[in-house]
């Protein structure tokens, strides 16, 4: 096996726990932001795109948002989040950018 393949395998093995921790962190943040009315039996509300983006920025990530329309992010919901790795002169960045896809309903 060549060194490039070995490096890619090692990087994938190291990235899996980081991505799992990010998913757990986002799930924890979502449950921490849950509507207190849910304790009384009311349906919980999901965090808005603005809440999730603020949480990611608070964790030190650079956030790139993909959405359509001009609806404010506090009225949008998250479709997905992902991180991409980029190599520059053989060095891989430290997963500092998170891409957020948000659904924003049409403005009324």
What is the CA-based Rg, rounded? 17 Å
Report strand order across the widest sheet: 1-5-2
Q: Could you describe the largest sheet, including whether it forms a barrel?
A: 3 strands, mixed
Class from helix and strand fractions:
alpha+beta
Mean pLDDT, all residues: 73
Q: Helical element count? A: 2
Low-confidence stretches: none
Helix content: 25-40%
What kind of oligomer do you see? single chain
Number of domains: 1
What are the secondary-structure elements, in order, as H or E? HHEEEEE
Number of strands: 5
Envelope shape:
elongated
- β-strand percent reads 15-25%
Distance between the termini: 58 Å
Any overview of this molecule?
Helix content is 37%, strand content 21%. It is built from two helices and five strands, in the order ααβββββ. A hairpin with a 2-residue loop joins β3 (87-88) and β4 (91-92). The chain is α+β, with helices and mostly antiparallel strands. 8% of the residues are buried. Strands 1-5-2 form a three-stranded mixed beta sheet, covered by helices on one side. The chain has one domain (3-103). This is PASTA domain-containing protein. Keywords: Signal. Residues 1-23 form the signal peptide. It comes from Mycolicibacterium rhodesiae (strain NBB3).
């Amino acid at each position: 096996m060549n060194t490039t393949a070995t490096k890619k395998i090692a990087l994938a093995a190291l990235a899996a726990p980081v991505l799992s921790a990010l998913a757990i962190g986002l799930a924890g943040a979502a449950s921490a932001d849950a509507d207190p009315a849910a304790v009384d039996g009311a349906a919980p509300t999901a965090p808005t795109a603005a809440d999730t983006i603020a949480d990611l920025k608070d964790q030190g990530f650079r956030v790139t948002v993909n959405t359509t329309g001009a609806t404010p992010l506090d009225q949008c919901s998250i479709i997905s989040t992902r991180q991409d790795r980029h190599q520059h002169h053989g060095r891989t960045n430290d997963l500092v950018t998170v891409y957020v896809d948000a659904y924003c309903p049409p403005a009324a």
